[in-house]
Amino acid sequence: MTRVRLDLFSSLDGRTSTAGTSPESPMGQDWGSLTAGHVTTRTFRERVFGDPTSGTTGVDDSYAAAHFVGVGAEIMGAAMFGLHAFPDDPDWKGWWGDQPPFGTPVYVLTHAASRPPIPMAGGTTFHFRSTSVQDVLAEATEAAGGLDVRVGGGISTARAFLRAGLVDDLHVMIAPVVLDRGTRLWQDLRGLELTHAVTTEVSDSGTIHVTFTRQSAA
Amino acid sequence: MTRVRLDLFSSLDGRTSTAGTSPESPMGQDWGSLTAGHVTTRTFRERVFGDPTSGTTGVDDSYAAAHFVGVGAEIMGAAMFGLHAFPDDPDWKGWWGDQPPFGTPVYVLTHAASRPPIPMAGGTTFHFRSTSVQDVLAEATEAAGGLDVRVGGGISTARAFLRAGLVDDLHVMIAPVVLDRGTRLWQDLRGLELTHAVTTEVSDSGTIHVTFTRQSAA
Questions:
Q1: Rounded distance, CA A71 to CA A68, Å?
Q2: B27 and which of A71, A76, B31, B140 could share a cystine (Cβ 3.0–4.6 Å)?
């Protein structure tokens, strides 16, 4: 049974992404403090930087490793693909490098849906769609072949799926910092703990891992 | 060396207190879900209800017990004293009962500062002041005789001390719920983790305990 999964970063005050974006800081000036616990894990360093020899191996790494298991298709927004960096270059393949760390079909939500698919090394193929979240999820679920669908971000795409009630498994990594700026992750999500079971756990980095899990239908 | 301490309840989205207040729900309709982990501790049940025979004894209780140790004076807002319930009754002694759980001088910030002090059983005396947060803190520090000063709430009083940079030890109990309404605890507090050391810990109730500790001057 395919589940829809979403991992997000947050501050203590529920801010995620990305005030102060610029060409030098495409994810925003606060991104580093939100993600410090995650990007220092062994899993992240191996998957994204190709370095399996360093990184933390505790609670943060357990969640990071789970992030990569059992995913059959990915959905992301145009900004996360990197479409806005070179919107007029038909040869631009996004900023995930020659071998993106997905290894699955990736559905990029964009108004520029006439772009042809881009097959990449390592099993990733980028597809461009301008449909509703429901329709792109149906297509991704079909493509996932019984594995899970991951909603990758950015935050506006993630929140569209959350607000529509489409996320089965939400994992939030709360960094022990107060940002007081950036998008409000939790807005419009009152009572999420009533439809999903909640767990909380902390890691050596001080990151608080919160999961919301919807019960599968029997 | 007197330290200024503050304990607060929050939701995952940084909301504290108290939307939906009414005579039946003076702390607001969401207060119960914010405080569930705390009010079920053995310490709370003994201190507030006089029942030492029940309650949880884990992480939540350790923080609850620490709350009551080493405090020499308390500061709170008029609403927390209960002044707004019967503002015109000079005999009203607040809603903390005949023997309030403080056992120290309590400085109540109010425009009705002409009220005489109210000595209560158990060592609590309520004093009414309309001074600045700095001035009432100076008086409370003097009264504390080397013990700590606790800022008791409510949230507007607490935030006044936080925004003024007067809190040395902040303890936030984050309940694993999303409220999406109520006062924003963290607003205007960007970078609190830069002036204070942060710890995070979770309890069996799912409550996330976050502490911010300012280093004492050497």
A1: 7
A2: B31
